[in-house]
Amino acid sequence: MNEKPNNRDNRFVVSICGGSGCGKSTIAKLICEGIGNEWATRIPTDYYLKPNRFSSLKEFFKHPLEYDWELIDRALLEMNGQILTTPNFDFIHFQRITVEGGRSYIMRPIVIIDAMLPYPRSHLTVFLNASDDDRRERIIERDKIWRTQVILNWEHHQITLNHLKSQNIVYDIMLDAMQPVDKSVEYVISYLRQQFLYKDVTDKNDELR
Question: What is the rounded average pLDDT of the residues 45-52?
Answer without folding.
Answer: 97
